[in-house]
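Please, structure for the following, as tokens.
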Amino acid sequence: MVRTGSASVAAGPTLAVVAREAGVSVPTASKVVNGREDVAPETRRRVTEALDRLGYVRRPRFDAAKSSSLVDLVVHSLETSWSGAVLHGVEAAAHDAGLEVVVSAGLPRNRAGRPDRGWMDKLTARGSSGVLFNLAELTSSQYGWLDQQRIPYVLIDPDLEPPPGVVSVGAANWQGGVTATEHLLALGHERIAVVAGHQRRMCSSARVAGYRSALAAAGIRQRPEYVRHAGFDESTARRRTLELLDLPEPPTAVFVCSDHMALGVYGALAGRGLRVPDDISVVGFDDLPEARWTTPALTTVRQPLSEMAATALRLLVRMVEGDRPESTRTELSTRLVERASTAPPRD
């Protein structure tokens, strides 16, 4: 497996030590560790705090030979079409593999920033074979707990560069940025701006890097004022678009690094009485359902979200079976989906 902890992990405190620290019996401490319900709330609180304070590592650890037909999927939210595509991909791949999926929205943390003990106990109690994470970011303590427990896990589209050895699946974001920009250049645009996501996120920085590379390859001067970051937020994208429109020489086209932000760009342009693509062309990124519902329909770079999720599930199954992936990073290709939001610039 990849990143499943060192060959030997420090033994740590015993359950008897935890029980003594919390002032309870060993059987009571065991009930809390195993997620039993017949424990008073105050007693559970004392035991949980002792577990966290002492760094207790629950035994037995995961064993692929004894693993169940369950896998866990932890997503940032269940309310977005992005999450819907991820769920669809995991569900289809899990069905083919004969697995069932337990879905959680978010990974709770305690005040110390460690994984919430309740979620950890439930995960170990149900004997899940492994975990897929489609979250903004895991903390170092969460990585550490997963490694200590030797739980196989795969990251789907991680925000930050994962620690060495962590398996992840994502999209070819740099190439997607190149493709979007080249499409606008081919239409005759030279004043091309980009509304990007978070500066620290891998996908956002890669898309902006692709945009810059395409401009450089075409011999087009890169304008720093044409690069605006909106944190993947629709309302912030609206404001950044207004800033671009207020420049002495506004862009004739905008590459927006997510379809969700493109909605904000559309709103800003409509508020200024500008038409897409007659007055300004717009290219998005993701190819979410919203891209087809907008008016005009959004030209966008499709990243295969469901395929990414399915690939992650298949990698997880291999890891559970003890097969180390050849590479810790898998990237699936992106492609341009042309619709009605782009056209040659007006004379």
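The CA atoms of residues 69 and 98 lie 7 Å apart. The radius of gyration is 24 Å.
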